[in-house]
Amino acid sequence: MTLNKEQYTAFEDIVGPEYISSDPAILFSYSWRSGLYAPPQDFSPLFEAIILPHTNEEIQAIVKLSNKFKLQFKASSTGWGPYNDATAPGCVKLDLRRMNRIIEINVKNMYAVVEPGVIGTQLQAECMKLGLNCNQNGAGTNCSASPIVGHCGFGHLSQSGSYGERNQLALEWITPEGELVCFGSLGSTGAWFCGDGPGPSLRGAVRGNVVPMGGLGVFTKAATKLYHWPGPTSVELEGVSPSYVPTSIDNHFLIRIYSFPDMEMMDQAQRKIGEAEIAYELMGFNKGMAASNIATSNEEMLKLHAEFSNLLTDFCLMVIIGGYSARDFEYKTKVLNQIAIDTQGKSLTKISDDPEVAAGCMWRWLRPTASIREVFRATGCFAGEVGGTDVFRLMADYIVETAKVKQKMINDKLIFDDGAPPFTQSIEHGHYGHGELLIRYIPNPSNWAGMMDFMAKANEIAIKQHFGVPGHVFSDMQHDIYGPHVMNYHKWLRKIKKSFDPNGASEGSHHITVKE
Amino acid sequence: MIVEKLSQLLGKENVEFKPDILESFSRDLSFVSPIRPAYVVKVKNLEEVQNLVKIANETQTPLIPVSSGAPHFRGDTVPGTGGAVIVDLSGMKRVIHISRKHRMAMFEPGVTFGELISAVAKEGLRLNIPLAPRRSKSVLGSLLEREPVVMPIYHWDISDPSGCFEITFGNGELFRTGAAAGSGTIEEQWAAGGSQKEAAGPSSASWYRLIQGAQGTMGIVTWGTARCEILPKLEEPYFIGSSNLENITNALHWLVRLRLANECLVLNNVDVAALLANNGTEFQKIKTSLTPWILFFNIAAYDYYPEERIKGQMEDMNGVAKKIGVQAVKTLGKIHANEFLKIIQQPSSEPYWKIRIQGACQDIFFLTIYEKLDELIKTMHEEADKIGFTTTNIGIYLQPIVQGVNCHCEFNLFYNPLNAAETDKVKQLNSIATRSLMEKGAFFSRPYGENTSLIMNRDAATVAALKKVKQITDPKHIMNPGKLCF
Amino acid sequence: MGLEEFRDDMTTCCRCSACKFVPLETLKGYDHVNICPSISRFDYRAFSGGGRLGIGVALLDKQLDYSSPKLREIIYNCQMCGACDVSCKYAMDMEVLEPMNAIRSEMVKHGNAPPALDKMITSLKNGGPMLLEGNAGQGEWASKLGVKDYTKQSVQVIYHAGCRTRHDKTRWAVAQQTVKLMQKANIDVGIAMDEPCCGGRAYQMGYQTEAADKARSNMESINKLGAKTLVTGCAECYFAFKVLYDKFGVKGDFEVLHTSEFFNRLVQQGKLKPTKKVNLTVTYHDPCHLGRQGEPYIHWKGQRVPGQLIIFDPPKEFRRGTKGVYEPPRELLQSIPGLKLVEMDRHKEFAWCCGSGGGVIETNPEYALWTATERINEAASTKAEAVVTGCPGCESLFETAIRKNNKNLKVYDIVEILAMATL
């Protein structure tokens, strides 16, 4: 199906001829498949048109027309993951890259308001000028800064900067039927500081641990919490890409990777560090991630991986301390050292003894920029991240369980052999955890079949061993697998979808549809 | 007859229709018009709640869940329509589970703050509690109402410290929110090492947010979990007194931003006096001995090198105070910070501090940001002046929440309920001040009582969306009808 | 290389958008996050590095047709500045610019290159310059300099002025000052009165055969001369002689230097002494073909190792823009008394393009000007009084942008600054 003249003209009337196209050359550039969960097929189904709206009014009009024409629409910001794609004919794309303003940064009340086209780096850089910081998607600061646009929002900074679901404040939502709803204080007063109320919080209807991934209207502006940034207002770098060395992160920062003898010790360290509230960042790291992050090429990564294999167990934590003062730094460092002793943590000397490597890693993980190196450079593709959100240890145990399945794939030579170790994110000073599994593969049919098999087994493990609902469950099929074991949440989710999107206009294949 | 069904389900002794009991639930200390419920039923467990909701759906009987004991203040438990059944959950008093490792507690609706505080303390944990809640206040009720809590650094999100809930929705279906949803039973989840603490989800909806702030209009919650913090090894509380609100909010901002203080809140001299005084004479004495604004905060330290941490935090705190031009002190007037700390770490002594002196109190509260406070307080005073309510008798409580992103601002209008003229004045002030404050940007995120429509009507799009949610959870509108926009 | 040879590179694109932005470690604020003029101006993903790679795959798979006007618009509204390539390779082991060059080459083969370029290519084939405008006489610029003609006399140093300088009178002063500075340093320099075009721009436009032919014929004649060094003040000529000719396998037996490198050496060696004060605050614009694309070509022939990891046999060292010419111009500017150098947000390997490259100035001057205006605004934000650079293409377009936007900035070639302090 292609748009007929009436449909195309109607959309064109809204945004002007420059900002709509249904030329195949444009459409194919949007259907090139993502490296995330990359299937063997090079292209996803083509959108009927790409539209580049600039205002809420334009989006509302497009959405209403989509409903009228019985078309579907899907909006996205930077458009990385496969959930930004069409899954069948009959869908128009709203590329929100022109909506890229930082609306407000409020220092005293520590929040910022952004449009979806603002990327994490931009907001972080502006915040740092003001002594503040914002949480970033672990995927990287190339993702949107909006707390409801990036998929989950867990990341390196979550230990001190939480994640999207909890950082979200007021929000502008264009419903699947084209109505504008302003959440919280925005709807009542025009201010952005609160996203809940009056009365029950609609935030609950539009996202959970994860977002609806284009399947429930369009989020055009969002406010996000900010946090104190104890570093410099801007970070000076020496060197040329890909090897930058920051020179101006002051001496109130410290980075370590600790290796622990077993899961129990790592778990203890995670909890003690959390309870002591000393870490700016705390992540369960592994040798594969460390090698990929530090190395500037795959060749170098292989060498580092071999080197780290002799030094690191599968149970490692990456810690960054950011002292709020010289005194605070001294105290936190002392506590960290004691916790490392108490939990038999051994520091990786490549980090602790080489200031250039340490500074480089620190900045790459404070402004998460190396995730692409970590997950995509090896093969161009990444999948199998499976992890959910619960307490740290449960998530770590889940990922260890699924890592056994991953190991089988490694043995079968279906994926890159990076040693299979898991990684886990500590959140809010250790209160919560999010786990993921790094699987890198070349997307050919046999590897893809292996991936699908892995996903099925990971789902089975999650359900049978009570590890919760992973964050990366999308599609009716997966919801239907989990729902019956999880309070039939899929039925409730469908009810929300149906109530707000009776025509199914907001393309929900990666969220949920209203199928009976 | 519904009474027969109720008696059959719950036992006759748990179905109350004595006039004095019904009368007691027909009104509260708010200005909501009294409506007498048809019955008051006491439930003991989930099964009874589920069956009750089923009966209510069959008979189109309104249900009003009530967890806390009297006195009630906000009108949310007063029936909005005739023929309603009050579902008294205060007898469900089990503390189901406490995990030191995962810093959480699971408990039933009847568990009060006093009970839970001591239970979790035995495990080395503490709750993030509202300011001196009344003794009879249900912890779960407080969580469901998104009440502000006194430790802003542990209040990451406005929903905190809520975790998961078990709820029977108005349509009779059982649901567990967040991590508690599963897979598996709660016991199976514990065996796997899970904890029902992560509130969001499952998947791409966060049902707990739709339940909170709903005033019982979505369903009946039969247990909930709260995120706990570990008990400090050492604590060092301080006051900063000032007549300059900007200095006070600057200090608040930095104490929270730099995570220097656990408990951290601002009261005016009226509210401090109300909290501490046992009688009117004491009240006046304390009030006049204090600066207009009192910032109270508590520096705390945990397991590792607590003395060192306290000392360091004090150094940094003094640095902040110096920069702002204020001074932290251990005593203010005759009040010692350590004594004050004890008071706010527990429920209020009886009688409840808000009614101890005058017998009644009407709260006007909303959320705002620091920059707006001055104007909003001025607006409140102007409206009080207009109506002839003495502004120097208005209690003011400022609580940074969401780690300083929001500020809960609460005006406490203490009055004598036996004085009709005074009561009428407060009633009028409650109404006109709410309107004026809204016009100046105050956000009434938790609308109660007679001002609810005024507040909800400002945001028609949200109301329309909420009605869709309500239609999902409670299609027959049996849950607390007449409240909010339902 | 044909497009098919880049299939693996193109299918390695994970769609992360890095190609749209400066390397993200470097960003210091909201502004100047963008690195790619093309998507910045045209917004659709097709106009990004990654978007073009996806299109490349679609072309290989015959899902798209080379004859499409929209395809031509997408493929040719790009300065081929290589910024996407640098930003991608911060993290990835894959080629971006090379496949884009291959797509252009296919466009030419399929007869769908912009007609405006044909005239220039015809001129090139006939031994003329690659210019649509400008017809100043060959060698006339040097008539009063008393400089050798290297085609007639042996010299140590060849000064290659480049078409854009020779045929534009407004640029002659730079060439003349270059020669004068060399003469002052007693350099045995020669020019060609009938200087050949380097042909480099033909490559960027997709005319790879024509560019290679030109490279071979040029090197055939230059190699015979026995000069030790070829110096040019044009970044695109520099790229052609140093990088492209090497890629074509016709690297000469002489050193190729940009004027900034050559004169910096002379200053460092004490052979030129900039003593006169130049009281200016300037910012330096890195020309794409001197900076990120100016790094030496790395020959590699091999194949991907089969398996689940992108590695090569023999190991492949990627050109990531790391070794471009960044420091010599800066050192040279810092040697000028009184001059203050301030950096733009986007500099060195992640400098924003001037807008003129890749045939854009000829095919879409409005877009070229838009790109230059962006850069001029960025330069103005540094509070500099002047933009200094090392390429006549950049200089000419910057001057136009400044004029059209009523800015007070001045534009200098780096040689002009040195001349102020030295001559």
TL;DR of this structure?
Chain A is an alpha+beta fold. Chain A contains 19 helices and 22 strands. Among the domains of chain C are: 1-113, no CATH class; 128-268, 3-Layer(aba) Sandwich (Rossmann fold), CATH 3.40.50.1860.
Features:
heterotrimer; A: alpha+beta; Uridine Diphospho-n-acetylenolpyruvylglucosamine Reductase, domain 2; Uridine Diphospho-n-acetylenolpyruvylglucosamine Reductase, domain 3; Alpha-Beta Plaits; 5 domains; seven-stranded antiparallel β-sheet; five-stranded antiparallel β-sheet; 19 helices; globular; C: alpha/beta; Rossmann fold; five-stranded parallel β-sheet; four-stranded parallel β-sheet; 11 strands; 42% helix
Written account of the structure:
Chain A is α+β, with helices and mostly antiparallel strands. Chain A has 19 helices and 22 strands. In chain A, a hairpin with a 4-residue loop joins β5 (102-106) and β6. Chain A is globular. Chain B is of the alpha+beta class. Chain B has a six-stranded antiparallel beta sheet with strand order 12-14-13-18-19-17, sandwiched between helices. Chain B has a five-stranded antiparallel beta sheet with strand order 5-6-10-8-9. In chain B, strands 1-2-4-3 form a four-stranded mixed beta sheet. In chain C, the strands form three sheets. Chain C has a five-stranded parallel beta sheet with strand order 1-3-2-4-5, sandwiched between helices. In chain C, 42% of the residues lie in helices and 9% in strands. Chain C is built from 18 helices and eleven strands. Among the domains of chain C are: 1-113, no CATH class; 128-268, Rossmann fold, CATH 3.40.50.1860. Chains in contact: A-B, A-C. At the A-B interface, β9, α7, α8, β11 and α9 of A face β9, α6, α7, α8 and α11 of B.
Tell me which protein chains meet in the greatest interface and how many residues each side has: A-B, 97 and 95 residues
**Pattern of helices and strands of chain C:** HHHHHHHEEHHEHHEHEHEEEHEHHEHEH
Average pLDDT reading of chain C: 96
Q: What is the first-to-last residue Cα distance of chain A?
A: 25 Å
Q: What's the total helix number of chain C?
A: 18
CATH class of the largest domain in chain A: Alpha Beta
Output the radius of gyration of chain A.
Answer: 23 Å
Helix content bin of chain C: 40-55%
Overall structural class of chain C, as computed from helix and strand content, comes to alpha/beta
